[in-house]
Write a structure and sequence with these properties.
globular; 3-stranded antiparallel beta sheet; GMP Synthetase, Chain A, domain 3; 2 domains; alpha+beta; 3 strands; 6 helices; 183 residues
Length: 183
C-alpha cells in the first residue's frame, strides 16, 4: 500500500510534489529572512520531532496548545503562528516539522523570551510522545532534556566512549550528553 493510498483511506490528501518543493523552499527561506523578520519585530523558528503514528495528532495538538498558552502567559500581542507538516514517513512513525513565530512588538529581551518559549514548546512535544529531535540533534540548545534522555548507565557509556575516542575533547565538545547540565 502506498503512502498516498493509506493517507486517502484515513481522510488525508496529498499536497502534491510541487507543494513538497514549496515547503522545502519555505524552510530554506526561513534562515535567510530571519534577520529581516526580527527587524520587523517578528521572532520565529522551525523545529522538528519524530513520533509513532499513533501520537501524531497528540504531538501536534500539544505544540499548538502550548504556543497559545505561552502567548497568553507572556502577554504577547496578537496571536502566535504555529503550523506543522509531516516531512518524512517510516514504518514506525513520522517526522513532524513545526514553524512557530509571533510578533514581539519590540520587546528588548525578545531573543531570551523566545528561547524560553521554544523550550516549553519542545517540552510539550516530548511530554506528548514526540522525540527531542528527529535529525537536528541535541547539542547545547536542547540540553535541558538530557535528564529525560539518559539514565546513569547510558550517560556513563557515552562519556567512556567519548573519552576513549577523543581524549583531547576536540569533537562535539560540550554537546549532547556531554553538556554541562549532564555532568
Amino acid at each position: 500500500m502506498t503512502a498516498a493510498t493509506l493517507a486517502k483511506k484515513h481522510g488525508g490528501v496529498s499536497g502534491g510534489e510541487e507543494n513538497g518543493r514549496a515547503g522545502y523552499n519555505v524552510t530554506m527561506a526561513i534562515a535567510y529572512i530571519a534577520d529581516f523578520m526580527a527587524e520587523q519585530g517578528i521572532q520565529g523558528e522551525t523545529f522538528e520531532t519524530c513520533c509513532n503514528w499513533d501520537r501524531i495528532d497528540h504531538v501536534i495538538e500539544a505544540a499548538k496548545t502550548e504556543a497559545k498558552l505561552q502567548h497568553e502567559k507572556h502577554g504577547l500581542i496578537g496571536a502566535p503562528f504555529i503550523s506543522s507538516r509531516i516531512t518524512q514517513q517510516y514504518h514506525s512513525g513520522v517526522c513532524i516539522y513545526f514553524t512557530y513565530g509571533y510578533f514581539h512588538g519590540g520587546e528588548p529581551q525578545a531573543a531570551q523570551l523566545f528561547e524560553k518559549i521554544y523550550l516549553e514548546l519542545k517540552r510539550a512535544v516530548v511530554d506528548a510522545g514526540g522525540a527531542v529531535s528527529h535529525h537536528h540533534g541535541i547539542g547545547k540548545v536542547r540540553a535541558a532534556f538530557n535528564s529525560q534522555l539518559y539514565d546513569g548507565p547510558s550517560l556513563a557509556a557515552i562519556k567512556a566512549v567519548k573519552s576513549t575516542m577523543d581524549p583531547q575533547d576536540v569533537f562535539c565538545a560540550g554537546n549532547n550528553a556531554l553538556c554541562a547540565t549532564s555532568h
